[in-house]
Amino acid sequence: DVKVTQSSRYLVKRTGEKVFLECVQDMDHENMFWYRQDPGLGLRLIYFSYDVKMKEKGDIPEGYSVSREKKERFSLILESASTNQTSMYLCAILGDSNQPQHFGDGTRLSIL
Amino acid sequence: DQQVKQNSPSLSVQEGRISILNCDYTNSMFDYFLWYKKYPAEGPTFLISISSIKDKNEDGRFTVFLNKSAKHLSLHIVPSQPGDSAVYFCAASAFPNEKLTFGTGTRLTIIP
Fold first, then answer.
1. Residue of chain A nearest B38, judged by CA positions
2. B49 close contact with A: CB closer than 8 A
3. How many cross-chain Cβ pairs, A to B, lie less than 8 Å apart?
4. Tens digits of residue pLDDT in B56-101
5. Rounded to an integer, what distance in angstroms lies between the CA atom of residue B20 and that of residue B31?
């Protein structure tokens, strides 16, 4: 069974801080995704990665960056956190052909 | 521009009755559609999918219908159970292994 682990369930940070959200998978999946979920807006794709050191912008990349140095780990970075980045952040992996995206439990991030 | 729309933010259904959740899309390149279910403080979990070569897919109590000419899909849950109370997201992509575009979600409440 695929396991996607997000390092923190809840996180509180201050405006201007650099914030790291970590996502680790236990299988050898190439495709990893970061989404944020906000009421009334659904899930919006921030960044995704098809392989180590490869990254692609999603629909809302502004204010974020990512890092994928190892296949199993995909990090989302808020360079200078702002209050409008308060949200639920969800990491997902894409399994084998025709398997749907599988999500971690999410990190609820509050920026004060 | 919201390419996948769920026009009902919430829906209440009596236990044992049928729940029908609707989803519309605008991008004619979408060929693969999925439904996810999400409980609070958990990541979305995959429910059921359908590709454009079919107009119906069934899995137990869950059936997804696709009307490609109308760019509309729906999820039917019969009979509805209290554990079905959750937020439901539809999602779409051009190919099965591609990044997904999600709708805004519908909160389903099953009334005992």
1. A105
2. yes
3. 51
4. 999 999 999 999 999 999 999 999 999 999 999 999 999 887 889 9
5. 21
